Amino acid sequence: MVDFINELNENQREAVVNTEGPTLVIAGAGSGKTRVLTYRIANLLSKGVPAYRILALTFTNKAAREMQKRIATLVGQGNAANLWMGTFHSIFSKILRVEAEHLGYTSNFTIYDSQDSKNLIKSIVKDLKLDDKVYKPNDVLGRISMAKNNLVVAQAYAQSAKITSADQAAKKPMISEIYKYYQARCKQSDVMDFDDLLLQTNILFRDFPEILEKYQKKFDYILVDEYQDTNYSQYLIIKRLAEQHKNICVVGDDAQSIYSFRGARIENILNFRNDYPGYKLCKLEQNYRSTTTIVDAANSIISRNKEQIPKKTFSQNEEGDKIRVMKALSDKEEGFQVAQEIFRISQNEQAEFNNFAILYRTNAQSRIMEEALRKRNIPYKIYGGLSFYQRKEIKDLIAYLRLTINQNDEEALKRIINYPRRGIGDTTIDKLKEVAQKYNVSIWTLLCNLNKVPGMVSVMTAAKLTHFRQLIEGFTEIAKEENAYETTYRVAKASGIIEDLSSDDTPEGVSRRENIQELMNAVKDFCETAYKEGRDDKLPAFLEGVALLTDQDSEKPEDNNKVTLMTIHSAKGLEFENVFIVGMEEELFPAQQSAYSPSALEEERRLFYVALTRAEKRVIMTYSTSRYKNGNVVYPQPSRFIAEIDPHYLDGFFTPARPSMGRSLHGPGIQEKVARPNITLQPKVEVPDIDTSKLVPINGEQIIPGMVIFHPNFGPGKVISIDGLGVNKKAKVMFPKHGQKVLLLKFAKLYVQGHTN
DNA sequence: CGCTATATCCTTTTT
DNA sequence: GGATATAGCG
Ligand SMILES: Nc1ncnc2c1ncn2[C@@H]1O[C@H](COP(=O)(O)OP(=O)(O)OP(=O)(O)O)[C@@H](O)[C@H]1O
């Protein structure tokens, strides 16, 4: 039996025990929402609900795995194994495989990742003879994605006056056309992109009521984590599935909604009460994760947002350290300082490296941190960047496998038709594309009918093309008979990939070979587990999930004691003892693009809230006064977010009054309630004996008893005594307003009155 | 056709 | 700084 008494507080228990009907758990960070979800599922299982009748949606595959593991320890492995638990994308891609035929796809449809989608858009832009400067793949995909996430199909897109006039205004009137072709080409290639997985599920449920009913009956209980970051498409899937029994439990925190760029709607969680009248509301107010300092500081930040549900959150943990702010003069120094601090803390407190995380706003910041950690021999693991399955050699091999299963997969074909080199050049490929377009068939179909288009290519080229076709056909035959591992192995060999890589003895070449080997191992692993569990071990079954894997999913056992480097976005839902938030600078965090939009700025602030609340014990923020950005040096100002934290919780941040304010980011029309454009704090206390405009920084070494110094938070004070040596040198200081404090001079930013000439 | 050297663009955040 | 597009040579 699950121990609800000791592991849950009263409110949590309430939400775990009352399993029927709609339930909304809305609560601040670290308050045990995910725990509620986990125990609720465990409770359902222990009450005898079959696992396969429970649908649980998480934000990442990793979150799903961890929840599954946790549930397994509560109720036993056998019980938890058959849960329908995963991301929206992975769960509904499985359902779509079963139902694909109803929608005109095959069950082996390929999933395009964003790179594939962008390449397809690029080629359409070219076909339509549009300016690729105007129609940038990223932008166009963004528009299409946004449309799909709001269930706007190509036709509706073209008919929507609102959308088309927006495109017109942006001088990109042809996006609607591109969308149309994009969708047609996907369909022709038996391809769905990420957003299709949700959009097509909606179409399926809309157009085939009997199928919807089947799944409504299949899933007796539906649970959704991180509900604040669901988009309209996801929202509607859930609403449809829960329509009959309304056994739906969603948990979330509007203050942690950080995926609006992906179409997430905070309204989904705000409107739950309207969608499910008679719902039970569960509020959790105690934060079990963080120190009171962190919780209070995070609350003081988020309260500056206008758009929010007011929530109480308190912590009964110890007060903990103040949030430290470190300033660096360059991005390199910032990295050095962070590495130094991690090293120092790990020594002082015997802390393992896996208790540290370095969080940043953009992936580009990771490199500097990596270098600094490497120099100090601190082990680290990095998330984000390109995942294992996005490496060149892996994508190449996967492309062969994809083409083996789905010959109409144009992006895969284009990728490998001439890799390894087989003398099929750009001219030939362009010609093939052109003719295929003309006859409205896939390139593969064209390859199968070369004789019907005489004179298209030379006899020599035709022979090469035919040879390529036969190669793939051979693979397809193998794939029918053999398991995924055998097939992959033979494809890697016969395609020439292995040979091509074996001739390369540079370190990169060696690492490529290792990667291929690693993929082989993964496939082997897949086959072995599949065989043991009596599941399908053929290639299509392996390939199904590959496009949806991220690098969080290829974690290795040896990674377990390393410092974690990731973006704040990917840190959502995680927790670490010590968190470094680096790059706390204007134009970086908040992102430059957000500066002029109040709502975007609020989202940045929520992101900051997420970052702070990942920490259990300690937060250290860093900023640099110079940094490389796109190859150029920029000189950023400290982030406004630092100054938005009540200084009471901060240690080491103060900017003396500058003669002139930094340039304001706010035009006269935009008013913002609390956020100050720049950090020009006027000292709050009037001090007769210190002229604050003439303060100069002072090095810890130079401080001696009797000195009058100025502290950013505590104002002026008199040094009473000094003790400790080197990095441990401390000063006892009497502050008239705050009493006596002991300051670690290494980190305290102190100022003295400058000499006036 | 294939390879290499040089120019150009970009950059939030992710399933 | 890094990925990608293009030019130019062998
Ligand atoms: N009743 C409880 N007693 C003790 N610890 C708890 C309790 N509930 C949750 N915790 C712990 O608090 C931490 C945060 O819990 P959880 O991750 O479930 O919170 P959350 O609300 O999902 O957080 P976030 O929204 O920040 O992702 C975890 O370490 C969890 O083990």
From TrEMBL:
One Pfam family per UniProt: UvrD-helicase
Residue ranges of every copy of the UvrD-like helicase C-terminal domain listed in the record: 292-573
Reactions the enzyme catalyzes: Couples ATP hydrolysis with the unwinding of duplex DNA by translocating in the 3'-5' direction; ATP + H2O = ADP + phosphate + H(+)
Xref: CDD domains: DEXQc_UvrD, SF1_C_UvrD
Biological process, per Gene Ontology: recombinational repair
A GO molecular-function descriptor: DNA binding
Keyword entries, A-Z: ATP-binding, DNA-binding, Helicase, Hydrolase, Isomerase, Nucleotide-binding
EC number: 5.6.2.4
One cellular component term from this protein's GO annotations in UniProt: cytosol
Amino-acid positions noted as binding ATP in the UniProt annotation, renumbered to this chain: 27-34
Ranges of residues in domain UvrD-like helicase ATP-binding: 6-291
Family assignment from sequence similarity: Belongs to the helicase family. UvrD subfamily.
Name this protein carries in UniProt: DNA 3'-5' helicase
Lineage, top ranks: Bacteria, Pseudomonadati, Bacteroidota, Bacteroidia, Bacteroidales
